[in-house]
Write a structure and sequence with these properties.
With 205 residues, the chain is of the alpha+beta class. Helices cover 34% and strands 25% of the residues. The chain has a single domain, classed as Aminopeptidase, CATH 3.40.630. The strands form 2 sheets. It has a 7-stranded mixed sheet with strand order 4-5-6-7-8-3-9, with helices on both faces. α5 links the parallel β7 and β8. It is globular and about 40 Å long. The relative contact order is 0.20.
Length: 205
């Protein structure tokens, strides 16, 4: 971790992209905290694309076609929803400077959203950063059961189809482990990252 930015400081997008390429990413203590710090974990969470697992119950949900999946349809609404507090999560690490920086990255073609819509409402989604053949997953939210999970499945399908080789989840959780997420040591991760940054995969359109 490094010294926080001063309150109200804007994160330069070129610095942000260099940080990701080095295995570093920003966080805040809470959504209301104006400061940002850098994180370089000793172990990194990834989901190996070749061994991605879809639970049986989720397969049934997907077959029902409950959600319309859209890519980059309303990025700003997606990141705002990820930053919202909920009953099971009173605060998040997505503050104002982070939201602003990632909206700028989206405009540059480096940040993308996967969104679940139902009856004209955004009910789930995720967003992340795309560089080379790497997708760095940042955050997800769900307003209806399984909405964000269906987005994750759609994300992996797109990454496989578009030639990506690394899906970074930053950390692992019990939720992500159900899909095949694993922890890898920093040195191994940074080697995988360097290799995946070679070449180019196109997330959108």
């Amino acid at each position: 971790m490094a010294r926080p930015f001063a309150p109200g400081f804007r994160i330069p997008t070129d610095l942000l992209l260099k940080a990701y390429a080095s295995g570093v990413f920003p966080m805040a203590e809470s959504a209301s905290d104006p400061e940002v710090f850098w994180v370089r974990p000793e172990t990194r969470g990834i989901i190996p694309l070749g061994s991605f697992h879809v639970p049986k119950s989720l397969r049934k949900t997907i077959r029902k076609g409950l959600f319309e999946i859209r890519f980059d349809f309303d990025f700003e609404a997606t990141i705002e929803a990820c930053a919202e507090s909920r009953e099971d999560r009173r605060s998040t690490w997505i503050n104002g400077p982070i939201r602003e920086a990632y909206v700028q990255l989206h405009g540059m073609g480096h940040c993308h959203s996967v969104e679940a819509w139902r009856d004209g409402r955004l009910v789930g989604g995720l967003y992340g950063v795309s560089m080379g053949r790497v997708f760095f997953g940042e955050s997800m939210f769900s307003r209806e059961t399984d909405a964000s999970k269906v987005c994750l499945v759609s994300l992996v399908e797109r990454l496989k189809a578009r030639g990506f080789s690394l899906l970074d989840t930053q950390f692992t959780t019990e939720h992500l482990k159900r899909f095949g997420a694993v922890d890898v040591p920093r040195a191994r991760y940074e080697k995988m990252l360097a290799e995946a940054l070679q070449g180019q995969a196109v997330f959108a359109p």
